[in-house]
Design brief:
Strand content: 25-35%
Low-confidence stretches: none
Shape: elongated
Helix content: 10-25%
Structural class: alpha+beta
Mean pLDDT: 92
Number of helices: 2
Strand order of the largest sheet: 1-5-4
Number of strands: 5
Radius of gyration: 17 Å
């Protein structure tokens, strides 16, 4: 994306809800990035100056899109979701 680099990084539900430090690849090698507590899928985090260099030597950024990876077969998570009544309606802003 110009001089910026985009990468999608999967995180666990636990890491998204509680916050965590995760290893993310960059052109210079992996770095640790803080996933803020309560992060949702699609949130974009920025690593300033970790993109490509332009002809003048100025570097772009690395943009990290968080993707929450929910396991398809986790009995404990399924039991929790079945008993949980929280969360509200995330589609309320769409009028539905």
């Amino acid at each position: 994306d110009g001089n910026d680099i985009r990468v999608t990084v999967p995180v666990t539900l636990n890491e998204a809800v509680l916050g965590a430090k995760v290893k993310v690849p960059t052109p210079e090698g992996p770095v640790m990035v803080t996933i803020p507590k309560g992060t949702t899928s699609g949130k974009v985090l920025r690593l300033k100056g970790r993109g490509f260099k332009d002809k003048a030597g100025k570097r772009g950024d690395q943009l990290i899109t968080v993707h929450i990876d929910v396991p398809a077969t986790d009995a404990e998570l399924q039991r929790f979701a079945e008993s949980w009544s929280g969360g509200g309606n995330p589609r309320a802003g769409l009028g539905v």
